[in-house]
Design brief:
Strand order of the largest sheet: 2-4-5
Structural class: alpha+beta
Distance between the termini: 41 Å
Mean pLDDT: 77
Low-confidence stretches: 5-11, 77-87
Shape: globular
Order of helices and strands: HEHEHEHEEH
Number of domains: 1
Helix content: 25-40%
Largest sheet: 3 strands, antiparallel
Number of helices: 5
Radius of gyration: 14 Å
Strand content: 15-25%
């Protein structure tokens, strides 16, 4: 199954499970730089084989250091708290 051809149809199906690598392709505006939300001891499985929902993927993204397109680098500690200002 081609991920790109089905992502628009099933993107909001919260029961659909894919690997984190597949979710990353679908949500290409977010790049995980430091995957703190994933199992570091078994990262290859956690990222490339384990099937998770989109909700689980985003929960892991929020625990990680990421770059969003058209944004500067954002670390976990910079995201914590309501006073964070990217400028």
């Amino acid at each position: 199954m081609d991920i790109d051809s089905t992502s628009n149809i099933k993107e909001f199906d919260m029961t659909l499970k894919r690997t984190s690598a597949e979710w990353q392709k679908i949500h290409s505006d977010t790049t995980v730089l430091d995957p703190d939300g994933w199992d570091r001891k078994n990262f290859d499985y956690s990222w490339g084989e384990e099937l998770i929902t989109q909700s689980e993927y985003f929960a892991r993204v929020m625990k990680s250091t990421c770059r969003w397109s058209n944004q500067t680098f954002v670390t976990k500690t910079e995201r914590v708290g309501s006073s964070w200002n990217p400028n």
